[in-house]
Amino acid sequence: MEFAIDVGGTKIAYALVDHSRIMASDRVETADAPPAEQLRAVGRQLQAMAREAGAKVAAVGLSLPGPIAHDTLLQGPNLPKGWVGQRIQDFAAMLDLGLPLFAQRDALMGGLGEYAAGAGRGLQSLFYITLGTGIGGGLILDGEPLLGADGAAGEVGHFQAEPRGPVCGCGRRGCVEAIAAGPSIERDYAKRTGHAIGAKEIADRARAGEQAALAAYRRAGRALGVACAVVAQAANPQAVIAGGSLAESLDLLQPALLQSLRQHAWAANLPLPILPAQLGGPAPLIGAAYFARRGLGED
Ligand SMILES: [Zn+2]
User: Fold this and answer.
1) 169 φ, ψ (degrees, to nearest 5)
2) What is the Å distance from ligand 1's center to 25 Cα?
3) DSSP character for 102?
4) Cα(159) to centroid of ligand 1, in Å?
5) Which of 12, 19, 164, 219 is 20 to 30 Å apart from 178, CA to CA?
6) Which domains does the chain have, with CATH numbers?
7) How far is CA 131 from the centre of its chain?
8) What is the chain's Cα-based Rg?
9) How far is the CA of 171 from the centre of ligand 1 (A)?
10) pTM of full prediction above 0.90
């Protein structure tokens, strides 16, 4: 069995995992306290979980919301102070579990979860894209997670989809994230109608046939098609797996996405099916456990 920990900007989820099945799990808020304090508390909770289950745990998988390279967490824009710049072995010491620790970026862990136990079962190469308050991505190619020189392979959120599009949080214009993330769809809809409502409600209105809502989702779908085309050309995956809260609206995104994909990608790399993720929120936990098991050479 493995311990899995998914650190996010608002919560830290943790679980005891047995062959991709979550046996026990819990979560705490990501506090503005030093990571050492928080991870030590999580480590104690995990030990209690294992004791209660009578489980023998071999390794820990840690999912972090930013790229990791040179054994260091390089960025984490949503994390409180103290996390970025820490080394993986420092996180292991903070957890104080005395177990080997394997850490990676959350979108890659999510992709590994789907690969091992979700919509990607049976595939060898897939692109996992998370659609939520941001856009993240991770690649598994020929059965191997692709890390990249800076730990950010597959992060297509800041690829420019519209040269004159809206300004992005990164300071540039027309990034996929500035068009297709939840808050971006909300901004687009508000601009069209003057109504500030959530992405889910906009989706309901689109399904009811409202033109402005359909247009907002169409625009997001087109931008996502550009992102998927880039990945199709560079990595040639067998499928795209879409996760995150907005993946529930894949029905609305899909038509424009596929059209834009056909427009931007070479026919030899198509068709590229876009599949909904199956694991939901726990995908990074399941992926982290799988990554740890793999790290031990057991998968
Ligand atoms: Zn950007």
Assistant:
1) -60, -25
2) 34
3) E
4) 7
5) 12
6) 2-110+281-295 (3.30.420.40), 122-276 (3.30.420.40)
7) 8
8) 19
9) 6
10) yes
* Cα of 172 from ligand 1 centre, angstroms: 6
The alpha carbon of 160 and the centre of ligand 1 are apart by a number of angstroms equal to: 8
CA distance 299 to 292: 9
Q: How far is the CA of 47 from the centre of ligand 1 (A)?
A: 40
Q: Which helix (H) or strand (E) holds 73?
A: strand 72-73
pLDDT number for residue 78: 86
Q: What is the pLDDT of residue 77?
A: 85
In tens, the pLDDT along 118-139 reads: 999 999 999 999 999 999 999 9
Give the distance (Å) from ligand 1 centre to CA of residue 165: 11
Question: Cβ-count burial of 133 within 10 angstroms (0-12 exposed, 13-18 middle, 19+ buried)?
Answer: middle
Quote the ligand 1 centre to 166 CA distance (angstroms).
Answer: 10
In the reported structure, the alpha carbon of residue 175 is separated from the centroid of ligand 1 by a whole-number distance in angstroms of 5
- Residues 194-221 have pLDDT tens digits of 999 999 999 999 999 999 999 999 999 9
Report the distance separating Cα 83 and Cα 257, nearest Å: 36
Q: Is the pLDDT of residue 299 over 80?
A: no
Strands laid side by side in the 144-145 sheet:
144-145, 135-141, 126-131, 239-243, 274-276
> What is the tens place of the pLDDT at every residue in 137-177?
999 999 999 999 999 999 999 999 999 999 999 999 999 99
The pLDDT of residue 221 is: 98
CA 194 to ligand 1 center in whole angstroms: 24
What is the distance in A from the centroid of ligand 1 to the CA of 224?
14
Which residues are placed with Cβ below 5 angstroms of ligand 1, an ion? 158, 168, 170, 175
Which pLDDT does position 200 carry in this prediction? 97
Q: At a CB cut-off of 8 Å and minimum separation 6, what does 286 contact? A: 4, 17, 20, 22, 113, 116, 117, 118, 279
Crossing angle for the helix pair 199-207 and 182-193, to the nearest 10 degrees: 60
